[in-house]
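Please annotate the following for my students:
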Amino acid sequence: MNKVFNYAQNKEWKFEGELPCVIDFYADWCAPCKIVAPVLEELAEEYKGKVNFYKIDTEDQQELAAAFGIRSIPSILFCPKDGQPQMAVGALPKASLVQAINEVLKVS
């Protein structure tokens, strides 16, 4: 996660990655998470080399999930290289995810 944000060291958001990224906060028991997972895998292939995709298991990484204020899952965080990250909650359709990647991450 330090490739994106050093949450233990920084209180203010400071992106530390080379590419913009999408972070999927999920849990194995979460049915909507299982619906959105293959869509995110598809997008990871489509945007390879342009956007990094990460998965965070909120059961294993409770401190990290708390640092990002995760209260429901799936939660998907879009982190542009410049500017503030934006969170989307719920199993969004592919078109909505693509729109967020284009608009928030400024990647097409």
